[in-house]
Structure formats: C-alpha cells, structure tokens
C-alpha cells in the first residue's frame, strides 16, 4: 500500500510538472505573439509616419544625388536617395511643382504640402500632378490657384453651377452634398481658363523626372483674344506629352 501511495504521489507530481510546463509554454507563446503584434504596430506606425511626415531639418538633402539602381549601390547611397531633398521651382510662387522630392526604390515621389498633413505622391504615374490640379485646384501653367466662379447658382438636383470668367457660361462646379469638393470646376478650369506663364527664375530649372511633364507651352490671353471666335482650337501639351485641344468660345 505504501508503494502504491508513493507511486500515486509521483504520478501526481509528474502531472503537476507537466501542467506547469504547458502553462509556461502557453505564456511564452502569448508573449511572443504580443511582441510580434507590437513590432507590427510599430512598423505600421513608422510607415504611416514616413508617408505623411513633413520633412524636418535632419532629413533635408539639398544636393543632387546619384540614384543608380544597379546592384552595386551601397546602403549609404540608398539611404541618401530616400532622404527628401529640396528642389528648385520653375519660378517664385510656383505652387504646382513639388518643393520636396524623394526616391523609393525605382519610384520618384513629390511632397504635397497643400494637404494637412502633407503626403507623398508618385510623379511617374502623374498621381501628384492630377492631385494638385483636380484636388487642390492649382494651374499647371501659372502655378497658382484657378480663378473661382464669378457667381454661383443652384443647378439640377444638388449640383451647384459657377459662372466662368473665360467662357461666360454657367458650368457644373460641385455637388452641394460634398463640401469643398470643386473637382468639376477644376476640370473645367483646366480645359477652359487661359493663364500667363510666369518667367523662370533661373535658366537651369531642374527637370522633375525624365518621364513626367516638364514645360507646358501655352498661349497668353492677349494672343488668344487675337484669334477669331470661329478659329478651331488652341493646342496645349499636357501630361505624358499627349496633345489636347481646348476650344475657344
């Protein structure tokens, strides 16, 4: 009987030890999962911070950087390439050209400082350019905001119409249900309005990239007015070097 009791006690002790080991393993697994979750959250927050971060003094790099994408490029050059650097504008007061650019791998991005907070957008696929024109209403020619409607009125449904100073017609400006959304007006202004292109502040204006739009040739207002109203069209060069014709009314 004593031997049986001892065996039972030993079995109970072994079971207790096994239970303790299982509990310890579960605790370790939980700790590992928590650490992984924390690391994932930190990485996500860091990525968000990078995407929407306003460049600070410690991140600025004013000189041109050789951003070769060959396999021989070292980590230091890659780090320098990803650092935001200041870019020359076409002329003073140019709100269309990005003041800050950076490389992320093979992509070049421009920093939109009109957004609050600011954010980075690709230049190659024209995401930055369309964002500036049709979200913030910045003219690619003048680098300034499009002129606002001379007056507004209610149109069909919830549509608000604006009177254009260029064509003297009421056109759809925005949807009354969507506040501060004047994308329709900006699209009309982009096609219809004529603006003078300011003179460049320097002869050597840095190109934004080899495959994004650079200069935009346009006709000034005085030249446009010298054309007869029945004259066919005015040709402008726009994104991706496509030609678009904008009719004069």
TrEMBL record:
Tell me which residues make up the Transcription regulator Rua1 C-terminal domain: 94-193
InterPro entries attached here?
Answer: Rua1_C
- List where Low complexity composition bias occurs: 1-45
Report the Pfam families cross-referenced here: Rua1_C (PF14616)
Q: Write out the ranges of the annotated region (Disordered).
A: 1-50
Cited PANTHER family: MEIOTIC EXPRESSION UP-REGULATED PROTEIN 26 (PTHR28125), TRANSCRIPTION REGULATOR RUA1 C-TERMINAL DOMAIN-CONTAINING PROTEIN (PTHR28125:SF3)
Please report the name of this protein according to its UniProt entry: Transcription regulator Rua1 C-terminal domain-containing protein
């Amino acid at each position: 009987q004593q031997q049986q009791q001892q065996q039972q006690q030993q079995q109970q002790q072994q079971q207790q030890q096994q239970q303790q080991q299982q509990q310890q393993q579960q605790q370790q697994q939980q700790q590992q999962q928590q650490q992984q979750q924390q690391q994932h959250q930190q990485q996500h927050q860091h990525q968000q911070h990078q995407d929407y971060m306003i460049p600070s003094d410690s991140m600025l790099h004013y000189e041109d950087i050789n951003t070769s994408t060959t396999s021989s490029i070292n980590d230091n050059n890659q780090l320098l390439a990803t650092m935001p650097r200041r870019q020359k504008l076409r002329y003073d007061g140019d709100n269309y050209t990005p003041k800050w650019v950076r490389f992320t791998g093979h992509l070049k991005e421009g920093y939109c400082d009109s957004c609050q907070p600011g954010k980075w957008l690709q230049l190659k696929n024209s995401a930055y350019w369309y964002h500036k024109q049709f979200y913030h209403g910045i003219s690619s020619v003048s680098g300034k905001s499009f002129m606002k409607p001379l007056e507004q009125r209610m149109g069909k449904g919830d549509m608000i119409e604006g009177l254009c100073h260029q064509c003297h017609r009421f056109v759809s400006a925005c949807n009354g249900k969507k506040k501060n959304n004047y994308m329709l007006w900006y699209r009309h202004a982009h096609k219809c309005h004529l603006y003078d292109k300011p003179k460049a502040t320097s002869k050597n204006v840095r190109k934004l990239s080899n495959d994004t739009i650079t200069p935009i040739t346009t006709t000034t207002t005085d030249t446009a007015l010298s054309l007869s109203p029945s004259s066919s069209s005015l040709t402008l060069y726009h994104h991706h070097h496509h030609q678009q014709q904008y009719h004069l009314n």
